[in-house]
Amino acid sequence: MAFHLTRYVNDSSVRNVEPGGTFTLGSTNSTLYTGEIDYTNIPSGAIGYWTIPLNTISVQSTPIALSGSASYAAIDTGTTLLGGPSDVVAQIYSKIPGSAPGSGNYEGYYTYPCSTDVSVSLTFGTSNQSWPISPADFRLVAISDDTCVGALFTLQSSGSGSTPSWIIGDTFLKNVYSVFRASPASVGFAQLSEVALGMNGANSPVPTPTLGTPAATVTSTSTSGSSRCLPGSIAISVILSMVTIVGSICAT
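The chain above was modelled as a monomer; its predicted structure follows.
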Protein backbone atom coordinates (compact mmCIF):
# COMPACT_ATOMS: atom_id res chain seq x y z
CA MET A 1 0.00 0.00 0.00
CA ALA A 2 1.18 3.56 -0.68
CA PHE A 3 0.43 7.07 0.53
CA HIS A 4 0.75 10.60 -0.75
CA LEU A 5 -0.30 13.20 1.83
CA THR A 6 -0.96 16.84 0.92
CA ARG A 7 0.04 19.98 2.84
CA TYR A 8 -1.96 23.11 3.65
CA VAL A 9 -0.28 26.34 4.72
CA ASN A 10 -3.19 28.81 4.45
CA ASP A 11 -5.96 27.68 6.78
CA SER A 12 -7.98 30.87 6.23
CA SER A 13 -9.03 29.67 2.76
CA VAL A 14 -9.58 25.98 3.43
CA ARG A 15 -12.95 24.67 2.20
CA ASN A 16 -15.29 22.13 3.80
CA VAL A 17 -13.88 19.41 1.52
CA GLU A 18 -10.19 19.38 0.59
CA PRO A 19 -8.06 16.71 -1.10
CA GLY A 20 -6.00 15.13 1.67
CA GLY A 21 -3.90 12.94 -0.62
CA THR A 22 -4.05 9.49 -2.19
CA PHE A 23 -4.07 6.02 -0.63
CA THR A 24 -3.32 3.18 -3.05
CA LEU A 25 -3.88 -0.42 -1.95
CA GLY A 26 -2.26 -3.28 -3.86
CA SER A 27 0.03 -1.19 -6.07
CA THR A 28 1.70 2.22 -6.40
CA ASN A 29 0.63 5.31 -8.35
CA SER A 30 3.53 6.19 -10.64
CA THR A 31 2.10 9.65 -11.38
CA LEU A 32 2.75 10.71 -7.78
CA TYR A 33 6.49 10.00 -7.55
CA THR A 34 9.67 10.19 -9.59
CA GLY A 35 12.75 7.97 -9.66
CA GLU A 36 13.12 4.72 -7.80
CA ILE A 37 11.43 3.72 -4.54
CA ASP A 38 14.16 3.36 -1.90
CA TYR A 39 13.18 0.39 0.30
CA THR A 40 14.50 -0.46 3.78
CA ASN A 41 13.75 -3.92 5.13
CA ILE A 42 12.06 -4.38 8.49
CA PRO A 43 14.64 -5.97 10.84
CA SER A 44 14.10 -9.55 11.99
CA GLY A 45 12.09 -9.58 15.21
CA ALA A 46 10.68 -6.08 14.63
CA ILE A 47 7.46 -7.32 13.00
CA GLY A 48 4.39 -5.78 14.62
CA TYR A 49 4.99 -2.21 13.53
CA TRP A 50 6.18 -0.89 10.19
CA THR A 51 9.58 -0.45 11.82
CA ILE A 52 12.86 0.35 10.07
CA PRO A 53 16.22 1.62 11.37
CA LEU A 54 16.58 5.41 11.46
CA ASN A 55 20.26 5.80 10.63
CA THR A 56 20.95 9.56 10.78
CA ILE A 57 19.11 12.76 11.64
CA SER A 58 20.70 15.91 10.23
CA VAL A 59 19.68 19.25 11.72
CA GLN A 60 21.00 22.55 10.38
CA SER A 61 23.50 20.46 8.35
CA THR A 62 24.86 18.69 11.48
CA PRO A 63 24.40 14.88 11.40
CA ILE A 64 23.41 12.91 14.50
CA ALA A 65 24.07 9.19 14.06
CA LEU A 66 21.87 6.49 15.60
CA SER A 67 22.46 2.76 15.95
CA GLY A 68 21.06 -0.50 17.30
CA SER A 69 17.53 -1.05 18.56
CA ALA A 70 17.46 2.53 19.88
CA SER A 71 17.27 3.64 16.24
CA TYR A 72 14.14 1.63 15.41
CA ALA A 73 11.45 3.91 13.99
CA ALA A 74 7.80 3.09 13.38
CA ILE A 75 6.62 4.70 10.14
CA ASP A 76 3.06 5.69 11.01
CA THR A 77 0.56 7.62 8.88
CA GLY A 78 -1.74 7.75 11.93
CA THR A 79 0.72 9.94 13.87
CA THR A 80 0.72 13.65 13.06
CA LEU A 81 4.19 14.58 14.35
CA LEU A 82 7.62 13.06 15.12
CA GLY A 83 8.51 11.49 18.46
CA GLY A 84 11.84 10.26 19.81
CA PRO A 85 13.99 9.61 22.91
CA SER A 86 14.41 12.62 25.19
CA ASP A 87 18.22 12.64 25.04
CA VAL A 88 18.37 12.63 21.23
CA VAL A 89 15.52 15.14 20.92
CA ALA A 90 17.41 17.47 23.27
CA GLN A 91 20.55 17.00 21.17
CA ILE A 92 18.66 17.88 18.00
CA TYR A 93 17.20 21.08 19.43
CA SER A 94 20.60 22.07 20.79
CA LYS A 95 21.61 22.59 17.15
CA ILE A 96 18.78 25.12 16.67
CA PRO A 97 19.82 28.58 18.00
CA GLY A 98 17.37 30.00 20.52
CA SER A 99 15.49 26.75 21.15
CA ALA A 100 14.28 25.87 24.66
CA PRO A 101 12.22 23.13 26.36
CA GLY A 102 8.51 23.86 26.46
CA SER A 103 6.49 24.08 29.66
CA GLY A 104 2.86 23.80 30.73
CA ASN A 105 0.77 22.64 27.78
CA TYR A 106 3.97 22.31 25.74
CA GLU A 107 5.92 20.11 28.13
CA GLY A 108 7.75 17.47 26.11
CA TYR A 109 8.00 19.87 23.17
CA TYR A 110 10.57 22.55 22.34
CA THR A 111 10.22 26.14 21.21
CA TYR A 112 12.46 28.06 18.82
CA PRO A 113 12.43 31.46 17.05
CA CYS A 114 9.83 31.57 14.29
CA SER A 115 12.33 33.49 12.17
CA THR A 116 14.53 30.36 12.00
CA ASP A 117 14.01 27.96 9.10
CA VAL A 118 14.83 24.59 10.65
CA SER A 119 16.49 22.19 8.22
CA VAL A 120 16.00 18.53 9.19
CA SER A 121 16.58 15.43 7.07
CA LEU A 122 16.44 11.69 7.77
CA THR A 123 18.29 8.66 6.39
CA PHE A 124 17.13 5.08 6.94
CA GLY A 125 18.91 1.73 7.07
CA THR A 126 22.03 1.44 4.95
CA SER A 127 20.80 3.86 2.30
CA ASN A 128 22.69 7.09 1.63
CA GLN A 129 19.48 8.75 0.47
CA SER A 130 18.64 11.78 2.63
CA TRP A 131 14.97 12.77 2.97
CA PRO A 132 14.41 16.42 4.01
CA ILE A 133 11.51 17.77 6.04
CA SER A 134 10.12 21.11 4.92
CA PRO A 135 10.65 23.90 7.50
CA ALA A 136 6.91 24.57 7.13
CA ASP A 137 6.19 21.04 8.36
CA PHE A 138 8.69 21.21 11.23
CA ARG A 139 7.01 24.41 12.48
CA LEU A 140 4.04 23.02 14.42
CA VAL A 141 2.44 26.22 15.70
CA ALA A 142 3.28 29.81 16.61
CA ILE A 143 2.52 30.60 20.26
CA SER A 144 3.57 34.25 19.97
CA ASP A 145 4.73 36.66 17.29
CA ASP A 146 8.28 35.34 17.46
CA THR A 147 8.10 31.91 19.19
CA CYS A 148 7.16 28.66 17.48
CA VAL A 149 6.79 25.07 18.69
CA GLY A 150 8.64 22.30 16.84
CA ALA A 151 6.92 19.19 15.50
CA LEU A 152 9.53 16.90 17.10
CA PHE A 153 8.53 15.92 20.63
CA THR A 154 9.83 13.68 23.42
CA LEU A 155 8.33 10.20 23.21
CA GLN A 156 7.80 9.13 26.80
CA SER A 157 7.67 5.40 26.03
CA SER A 158 10.90 5.38 24.01
CA GLY A 159 12.98 2.24 24.48
CA SER A 160 10.50 0.43 26.72
CA GLY A 161 9.54 -3.14 25.86
CA SER A 162 8.86 -3.76 22.18
CA THR A 163 7.83 -0.17 21.44
CA PRO A 164 10.04 1.47 18.79
CA SER A 165 12.19 4.33 20.04
CA TRP A 166 10.92 6.63 17.28
CA ILE A 167 7.57 7.34 15.67
CA ILE A 168 7.80 8.99 12.25
CA GLY A 169 4.48 10.55 11.37
CA ASP A 170 2.99 12.94 8.86
CA THR A 171 5.41 15.81 9.56
CA PHE A 172 7.86 13.68 7.58
CA LEU A 173 5.50 11.66 5.39
CA LYS A 174 4.04 14.76 3.70
CA ASN A 175 7.46 15.22 2.11
CA VAL A 176 7.73 11.79 0.43
CA TYR A 177 5.75 9.14 -1.39
CA SER A 178 5.67 6.26 1.11
CA VAL A 179 5.21 2.58 0.24
CA PHE A 180 4.56 -0.28 2.69
CA ARG A 181 5.51 -3.63 1.16
CA ALA A 182 4.52 -7.04 2.56
CA SER A 183 7.12 -9.27 0.87
CA PRO A 184 9.85 -8.74 1.68
CA ALA A 185 8.56 -6.73 4.64
CA SER A 186 9.88 -3.23 4.07
CA VAL A 187 9.06 0.47 3.86
CA GLY A 188 10.07 2.56 0.86
CA PHE A 189 10.20 6.26 0.05
CA ALA A 190 10.34 8.13 -3.24
CA GLN A 191 10.56 11.74 -4.36
CA LEU A 192 7.20 13.44 -4.95
CA SER A 193 6.33 14.24 -8.55
CA GLU A 194 5.25 17.63 -9.84
CA VAL A 195 1.71 16.24 -9.99
CA ALA A 196 1.82 15.39 -6.27
CA LEU A 197 3.42 18.70 -5.31
CA GLY A 198 0.79 20.54 -7.33
CA MET A 199 -1.90 19.21 -4.97
CA ASN A 200 -0.41 21.11 -2.01
CA GLY A 201 -2.12 24.26 -0.80
CA ALA A 202 -5.69 25.39 -0.52
CA ASN A 203 -8.02 25.67 -3.52
CA SER A 204 -6.67 22.54 -5.22
CA PRO A 205 -9.45 20.69 -7.08
CA VAL A 206 -11.04 17.83 -5.15
CA PRO A 207 -10.51 14.65 -7.22
CA THR A 208 -12.98 11.80 -7.61
CA PRO A 209 -12.24 8.52 -5.78
CA THR A 210 -11.24 5.70 -8.12
CA LEU A 211 -11.46 1.92 -7.85
CA GLY A 212 -8.83 -0.13 -9.65
CA THR A 213 -9.19 -3.55 -11.21
CA PRO A 214 -8.69 -6.47 -8.79
CA ALA A 215 -5.29 -8.08 -9.34
CA ALA A 216 -6.60 -11.49 -8.28
CA THR A 217 -9.73 -13.24 -7.14
CA VAL A 218 -10.05 -13.60 -3.38
CA THR A 219 -12.16 -16.40 -1.95
CA SER A 220 -13.05 -16.35 1.73
CA THR A 221 -12.71 -19.70 3.47
CA SER A 222 -13.50 -18.43 6.95
CA THR A 223 -16.14 -20.11 9.04
CA SER A 224 -19.09 -18.29 10.52
CA GLY A 225 -18.11 -15.87 13.25
CA SER A 226 -14.44 -15.74 12.27
CA SER A 227 -12.51 -13.38 10.01
CA ARG A 228 -9.47 -13.49 7.79
CA CYS A 229 -7.45 -10.54 6.49
CA LEU A 230 -7.15 -10.37 2.72
CA PRO A 231 -3.66 -10.99 1.28
CA GLY A 232 -3.31 -7.57 -0.32
CA SER A 233 -4.39 -8.59 -3.80
CA ILE A 234 -6.92 -5.87 -4.57
CA ALA A 235 -5.68 -2.67 -6.23
CA ILE A 236 -7.72 0.24 -4.89
CA SER A 237 -6.91 3.94 -5.13
CA VAL A 238 -8.81 6.08 -2.65
CA ILE A 239 -8.67 9.86 -2.55
CA LEU A 240 -8.33 11.02 1.04
CA SER A 241 -10.64 13.97 1.65
CA MET A 242 -10.10 14.76 5.33
CA VAL A 243 -10.58 11.08 6.18
CA THR A 244 -8.52 8.86 8.50
CA ILE A 245 -8.35 5.15 7.57
CA VAL A 246 -7.49 2.86 10.48
CA GLY A 247 -7.23 -0.91 10.77
CA SER A 248 -7.07 -3.89 8.43
CA ILE A 249 -9.24 -5.00 5.53
CA CYS A 250 -10.68 -8.36 6.47
CA ALA A 251 -13.27 -10.80 5.13
CA THR A 252 -15.85 -12.22 7.53
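The longest strand covers residues 33-41.
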